[in-house]
Design a protein that fits this description.
This protein is of the alpha/beta class and 208 residues long. Helices cover 30% and strands 21% of the residues. The protein has one domain (8-204): Spore Coat Polysaccharide Biosynthesis Protein SpsA, Chain A.
Amino acid sequence: MTTGSDGIIGVLLAGGLARRMGGGDKPMQTVGGQSMLARVIDRLAPQCDGLILNANGDPARFADLELPVVADAVAGFPGPLAGILAGLDWVALNRPQTRWMLSAAADCPFLPRDLVRRLDNARSEQDAPLAVAASGGQSHHVIALWSLALREPLRDAVVNEGFRAVGRWMARHPVATVEWPVTPFDPFFNANTPDDLAEAERLAALEV
């Protein structure tokens, strides 16, 4: 998968506090015999030209994944925008020719295998700096393709304006939205609670 001058890097967002799951590393919970994070990696690694993990705390706990681990760029757990900014900063520093970055939640165990291709096509066709996944008429703002040109405007919004809501910040920019079907299940289902995990196990049995 390549686009621009140096492909697309994906940042997996795992920097949250997982309060509704009782704390800990929510993406390490198991669905269908694999951690949710492993399932996300399996889906996105073939679609991207590299993956990084946004997580806070001791990065050594993710050593087995052999992925770069980047902490939030802003202190105080301000939400996914900080993780996205951290990803953009890492890409700018380590892959300076890269023009696009995918963000994805690490607790979405059923991400579509055509995610990057369809987002990339939409942003290209609409000449937009952002492309966002949607299903059931709802946009999933943390699952998106970002132009690296948004890095400094995002930093200003997070650091100086205190922005926390991804969708509210995106509303400032042209966004290409790509819709996926929700049958046999929503590919953007995310597990936030123990009940969600039980539902994810049921959905995993429907996969082909």
